Predict the 3D structure of the following.
Amino acid sequence: SSNAQTQISGVGGGKVLQVVYGYDATETTISGSSLIATGLTATITTSAANSKVLVLVSQMGIVKTTGSGSNTCITIKLHQDSTAVRSLSLYLGYTGNLTNTRYSGVSGTYLSTTVSSASTSITFSTKALITTGGGNMSTEGNGTESSITLIEVSA
């Protein structure tokens, strides 16, 4: 048969154990040079020892909301619990008088280190800060939706 599939036995690991999905569509204002939670978060409780978590994240609706006449840039970071593990954007910016007109988004992936025991609760979230300029920016602007998917994979 031309559609035949072959299963190889004895190959371990790489199986999907569970999937957790989170989303956020609430606009969050980002101002200043301190990290601010964007509201995009998801928590997974691992089901097996020695598994890893693959994270797929899409942060949307990024827009400059104030600061006409100034250049404004935002940095968005993915956090595992309280630790930044991946930069999704560095100096994503807008110039001059472009406020509430141009929306953008960023996406990224991350594979966690091996989780040593089952029933470990891990929270992934995004946080952002203004890295350049005097304006404010927002995530999930104009009703856009951001998403985060957590996939536990066996060792």
Remarks:
- The two ends are 33 Å apart (CA to CA).
- The first strand starts at residue 16 and ends at 24.
